[in-house]
Amino acid sequence: xGGTESMEHQTKRPNNAVLLKRxxxxxxxxxxTPGAERPLYESxxxxxxxxxxxxxxxxxxxxxxxxxxxxxxxxxxxxxDKPEEDEIVNLMRMTSTSSFSLAVLLSYLLYWKRRxxxxxxxxxxxxMQNDFISGSLAxxxxxxKEEAAEVVPIINKLRVEAAFDMVVLTQDWHPKDxxxxxxxxxxxxxxxxxxxxxxxxxxxxxxxxxxGMEQVLWPAHCMQGSHGAQIVDGxxxxxxxxxxxxxxxxxxxxxxxxxxxxxxxxxxxxSMLQQADITDVYVVGLAYDVCVRYTALDxxxxxFKTYVIRDAxxxxxxxxxxxxxxxxxxxxxxxxxxxEVPERLA
Length: 346
Description:
The protein is built from twelve helices and eight strands. By secondary structure, the protein is α/β, with parallel strands linked by helices. Helix 10 links the parallel strand 6 and strand 7. The longest helix is centred in the first third of the chain and has 16 residues, at 61-76. The radius of gyration is 25 Å and the shape is elongated. The two termini are 40 Å apart.
């Protein structure tokens, strides 16, 4: 497998023990029969008894390998592939100089039991920024005429009443020469097939760039370091909250908090959620039919169970909201109201 060869040449213990544990968690987490409800650790105790081991600490590499093979075969009926076996052993070797602990191995398997049976939920608060509430791209000035500030108390109440394991706030964070700004449209070559060319383009028109990427032309908004890019006053923000900035490249927009619109670059959101062992993602914020929509769809693509809290969002347009609801439901996103969330996370 991809990481095995480099692991074999590792001579020093890693400085970041937490990262190492996550690597081992991730590897052991795949050692399950597809579709099986029980993780492998349920076979562990019987295997140790059958081997009549007198100790579980300071065992040799050969014993570790034998346990891995026996547990895998006992649970699945198949032999664990040698490259996978080597990768696990090499990872464990990085935490020990000469011997191994089966207790450590069991603890990781128990960890995966907890992850499998206990969902961990993240609240992703999308783009609750001044420009979308009272600034240059305020939703109340868009076709839907919706008041974005109304969701602030809903989100704050939700944070008090629902037991989220993690909270992430996203921010549009555009350079001043960003391709989504109507004022910059002449700076980016358009396709001959674009429905409108630069000289005729108006606010909210959709153009097609020379590379084929479509782009709605928005007013300049959420420029890096500006007041408009800041999180709105009154929204509860805690020191433990995480932040994700998106739309930071000049030549591509980023509606989703996971990827840019070309799906070329990741933000750090997916890795952040994975490192926190998040299984369920709840999305709120602005705008429902733009950044909330694409964040939720990419959350599904990233294999998180995904919810959108509908009354904690506001939209650009009624038509966009209706189409978004249909799309989200068709892709397996659950739509609910804020009042339904606390009981789910109790």
